[in-house]
Design a protein that fits this description.
It is a single chain. The protein is mainly beta. It folds into three domains: 72 residues, Roll (SH3 type barrels); 183 residues, no CATH class; 133 residues, Jelly Rolls. It is built from three helices and 32 strands. It holds the Pfam family NPCBM.
Length: 393
């Protein structure tokens, strides 16, 4: 007992204030925002089936999940260099992993400094083995944003070119991908691959009202938080009834939101088109007839067209992909720009039918604009489809 007392006395002042007698659990101060705008501060005390528990002095307060907007540690955790491998699930979760493997029905994922978890293989969207880069991101995101009838093994060629090969994924370990190509089974070394994209079928997005972000770059889109016997962690339930525990000290933020707005469902702040052939038709009719417009969950835009949307508070990412519209039989090159508060944040020239994906930071932005421009070879056939463009929290 004397040795323990002496050891405790050498710790930094104030450390004992964060110790729960009997458990030695670290008390972590957090700040919560409720739907009414109230700011609540206190020490994290875990969750119940329907509420967050906050300790303030001798009082423990329970705040129902349906009244929560956001929660974050008062002292933001230091940024960490996360793992290179990123696993994207079809439900929107992105997991930064040290290792990943798969069997016929399960995908096993090992996040850094967290317990391993298994998810059903039909929940897997893609696995990227290399770090993101400006040279390859549009190509990679273009592949992952689409609907694929077969698995894709994506090889990185010289000049930062990605080459998708259709086939069937048979297995995966830390060194090789087992892949069936035209009836032949082969083992592809991971060092030569950008990643793998799993075949996907059209599906409605799962209800994932809770977004948990950690310090390693993972984003957990959870259907709900679960009661946890460990007050130093948060237990999330992912779609597919997968449960995963995240240490509280690794959490950057938690947001209780639907987290997704399709632009096709939103009224634009403004839209228009500048025709390259002069006409006496009134500008409002030209915009109505030829300007950018929604079609299902997509947006259609022709050369000279522009459309702008307001960004609601709390949304951080603008995501989607763009490709030549399938209605175009033949066309030249066309440039596409994404502007955030008037500044160009993403620009690509579309030369063929391959989709190009984007993820643009819009945190704190007020407006997002889309522009379609001819790329120097005329505007005939320059019609573009933005595939499911959306704001994400």
């Amino acid at each position: 007992m004397l040795l323990i007392t002496l050891w405790l006395s050498t710790l930094a002042p104030g450390w004992l204030a964060g110790v729960s007698v009997g458990t030695l659990a670290l008390a972590i101060p957090v700040q919560l925002e409720t739907a009414s705008g109230e700011q609540v501060e206190g020490d994290w005390a875990g969750t119940t089936e329907s509420a967050v528990r906050i300790q303030s002095g001798s009082e423990t307060r329970e705040i129902p999940f349906d009244q929560m907007v956001a929660m974050r540690p008062k002292s933001a955790p230091d940024g960490r260099i996360g793992p290179t491998i990123h696993v994207d699930l079809v439900t929107g979760t992105t997991i930064a992993a040290d290792d990943v493997s798969l069997t016929d029905t399960k995908l096993q994922i090992e996040p850094r400094d967290q317990a391993a978890l298994e998810v059903p293989l039909d929940q897997a969207g893609s696995i990227r083995f290399r770090a993101a880069s400006p040279a390859t991101d549009p190509q990679w995101l273009g592949l992952t944003e689409g609907e694929n009838r077969q698995d894709l093994m994506v090889i990185r060629r010289g000049g930062d070119q990605l080459d998708p090969i259709q086939g069937v994924v048979l297995g995966l370990n830390s060194k090789t991908l087992q892949f069936e190509l035209d009836g032949d089974e082969l083992e592809a070394p991971l060092e030569r691959l950008e990643g793998v994209v799993f075949r996907t079928a059209p599906r409605e997005p799962n209800a994932t009202p809770v977004k948990v972000s950690d310090i390693f770059g993972s984003t957990w889109m959870a259907s709900q938080l679960e009661p946890s016997g460990d007050e130093d962690s948060v237990l999330v339930r992912l779609p597919g009834n997968v449960k995963h525990s995240i240490p509280l000290q690794q959490i950057r933020s938690i947001a209780w939101t639907s987290g997704r707005i399709l632009l096709a469902d939103q009224p634009p702040a403004q839209r228009g088109i500048e025709l390259f052939i002069r006409t006496s038709i009134p500008a409002n009719l030209v915009s109505e007839w030829f300007g950018p417009h929604a079609e299902g969950q997509d947006l259609i835009g022709s050369a000279g067209g522009s459309i702008e949307f307001r960004v609601e508070s709390g949304f951080e990412t603008f995501a989607g992909s763009v490709q030549r519209d399938s209605a175009v039989a033949r066309g030249g090159s066309v440039a596409v720009r994404i502007l955030v508060d008037g500044d160009v944040r993403w620009e690509q020239t579309i030369k063929d039918d391959a989709p190009m994906g984007f993820r643009v930071d819009i945190a704190g932005a007020r407006r997002v604009g889309l522009k379609v421009l001819p790329a120097g070879d005329g505007d005939v056939g320059d019609q573009i489809r933005f595939l499911k463009p959306r704001f994400l929290k």
